[in-house]
Design goal:
It is a single chain. This protein has 301 residues and is an alpha/beta fold. The chain has a single domain, classed as Indigoidine synthase fold (3-Layer(aba) Sandwich), CATH 3.40.1790.10. It contains 13 helices and 11 strands. Helix 3 packs antiparallel against helix 4, helix 3 runs parallel beside helix 13 and helix 10 crosses helix 13 (277-299). The two termini are 30 Å apart. Bound molecules: pseudouridine-5'-monophosphate and manganese (II) ion. Residues 138, 140, 262 line the site of manganese (II) ion. Manganese (II) ion (MN) is lined by residues 138, 140, 262.
Amino acid sequence: MTLPLRHSPEVAKARAEGAAIVALESTIITHGMPFPQNVATARAVEAEVRAHGAVPATIAIMGGQIHIGLTEAELDQLGQAKSVAKLSRADLAACLATGGIGATTVAATMICAHLAGIKVFATGGIGGVHRGAETSFDISADLMELAQTPVTVVAAGAKAILDLPKTLEVLETQGVPVIAFGQDQFPAFWSRQSGLKSPLRMDRAEDIAAAHRLRGILGLPGGQLVANPIPLANEIKLDVIGPVIEAALAEAEAQGIAAKAVTPFLLNRIFELTEGRSLAANIALVLNNARLAAAIARHLI
Ligand code: PSU
Ligand code: MN
């Protein structure tokens, strides 16, 4: 058996030319946003990566292959498909074995990006330690992946649907560098401030690239989390989004939502409760992350 890796024509060309490549995840498309905004956003993020001197590689599992880069038709298919599996480290191989269609989370996208030799990955938010984890044990596999797979992940921090202090504690325990970009605080996705100081701060893409390289030279496994605050113009402050999050969390608990279903349920309810404002912010921050990831990738060629 060989590695079931398939590059899109655009990514194959970029590899041949030694161009900068930025990986993009697909769970944000299938489980993070409603259709048709999901497909439109995925295309806009790809265009933003190109406009900033890198080539986008959206990653998904289709037909028993890891697709590194999707064609227009494949992206459409994924964005509209019903019952796409949400794949993390645990279920990636099973999906490939059975020929199913699967979207990759941050953890699975890191694994696939690394297999394809891609060092930088842009997304919206990472998974983390859920509130109530002391009883539910719900801690995203994204955190442990950051500890073992050498990919730099650019996200807008983590959503306040999570327990952010515990998320930072687990990242510290796992030896994951958490780098806020251009500010001291760890950003909270829709909000620039979380009230929590980021363990590290960097202000230049080249420094983030140099730190990525040095981890490799030092023989340290794992990647880096770059926490890039949402642009000021698109921010929803914590005092506005906070009560909405509380309402969504209460509904999830009342309905007994558990395991993999928790994050998609909360994202969808927050979208509905903010009448789409959360989605507009989400799109803006992903574009912002695509720009920074492209700049880091250009320094890592
Ligand atoms: N957080 C977001 N948006 C997302 C996700 C997380 O703000 O779309 C997705 C990502 O794909 C992430 C996954 O890797 O959810 C985490 O899911 P879980 O909490 O089940 O590990
Ligand atoms: Mn979980």
